[in-house]
Amino acid sequence: MENSFLAFVEDSIKKNWDLDALTDYKGATLQYKDVARKIEKLHILLAESGINPGDKVALCGRNSSHWGVAFLAILTYGAVAVPILHEFKADNIQNIVNHSDARLLFVGDVVWESLNEAEMPSLEGIILMTDFTLLVCRSKQLEFAREHLNEMFGKKFPRNFRKEHVSYRKDKPEELAIINYTSGTTSFSKGVMLPYRSLWSNTAFATEMLHLAPGSRVISILPMAHMYGLAFEFIYEICSGCHVYFLTRMPSPKIIFQAFADIKPHIVISVPLIIEKIIKKNVLPKLETLKMKILFRLPIINEKIGSTLRDYIVQAFGGNFFEVIIGGAAFNQDVERLLRDIDFPYTVGYGMTECGPIICYEDWRRYKPGTCGKAAPRMEVKIDSSDPENLVGEILARGDNVMLGYYKNPEATAQAIDKEGWLHTGDLGTMDKDGNVTIRGRSKNMLLGPSGQNIYPEEIEEKINNLPYVCENIVIQQSDNKLAALIYPDFDEAYANGLTPADIERVMEENRTAVNAELPAYSQIARVKIYPEEFEKTPKKSIKRFLYQDVK
């Protein structure tokens, strides 16, 4: 096949015309022919309202079949899609709409309730995703197009819309397809410009590596406004004739667990936090004699226990998948060791929005535990270090997946991509002689010890997370240069075991002593602060560190 992303989409729609394509969990289903018909209607709406190829069209809402249709329609028409996370605050959404120069905005009903259209003066219209209702209209052309949409569609296709009518434009490799605004762990978002070669290369990678067949079932859990979820829970599946289920609600461990049981997906794509929570909340309680923390600390897991545990975990994810792919954030090493010991089919990948997203991956059968795989096809990876195997350095990436740059921000682009085309990821890592990359932390997160030692808070946090009654934590450096651990305890487990708030404080202090026994003097924890609620997170479920830089 030619290196055309939209050819992937067109061919799949035609080949899988009568198959189920998109389902809102416990709601309606669209077949591929329904998706094609809706795309065509949106093409008419865009054309008749004066939207030109290259114009920006934003979309913001929970994952749903309507979101997927709107996204595909924008790209196949020739406009530039600007997906915006529905979890962003209203002023953040409005700023992104304005910064991106979007002419139209497709919204979900929940998002619309919080927005103020007066703060987005350049928008010509705001359209409800579900039925294309005009919520705001500042264009006579748009108003006319919406009022006469069905009539115009009928005139264009008087004898019904058929698969031979599906003919999408040919995209060019360097043509801008998506502007994806990073949530990141800094307070300022940047618009990542992804060209069609990045979309094509990521889709080709998934096609080469994952081999899902038409009709395979997949659950869309991760937000589609983030490239990890968009590329590997939606785009690849659509291009492969799969059936994508959208949860259309907050993906809590309980809802996800039920969806896995009902849908039985053929592949599971997720972030570490969701995997860890499902195992902790839905699997380990069934093994009444086993405590998670004890289990993780055993050097060897009993074979019978291991087999039982594997069966439970497989069933927790629906029992029908060939692989679990984990990415988006660092994976807890003890959880990983547990999965490895019970021969669970998982692999850990590595990517970032700026690569649309994939950088490293390895098939689970060849995957080296603790790493995030090797450079993906059409990508090069190197470590900026004199001794990449032993000395930590910044991870650099180059290849077809890399972005064009940051929208309207040439300074940030020049800082990120050097003259030789290497993207400076800001992540720190090592690489073994076989090319397997191990992430050691974020360069932005690295702390300096009292004598200039490099301290990687993620490594300490991982140790703390495996101690009793710890749900999640972050390690920060205080104004006196001493380290503090901010801990959100597992209150449910603690109270179920009869602990009082005073007991929890005592346990956390014991945890501090325990972790310090494993750490060199320069990276020991000086104090613990208990947080009453979960830390605020990015869509990849990374804690927004910039919000927690001081112990109150």
UniProtKB/TrEMBL annotation:
An MF annotation (GO) of this entry: long-chain fatty acid-CoA ligase activity
Record-annotated AMP-dependent synthetase/ligase domain positions: 10-407
Catalysed reaction equations from the record: a long-chain fatty acid + ATP + CoA = a long-chain fatty acyl-CoA + AMP + diphosphate
Name assigned to this protein: AMP-binding protein
GO annotation, cellular component aspect: membrane
Origin: domain of life: Bacteria
Pfam families recorded: AMP-binding, AMP-binding_C_3
SUPFAM superfamilies: Acetyl-CoA synthetase-like (SSF56801)
Keywords for this protein: ATP-binding, Nucleotide-binding
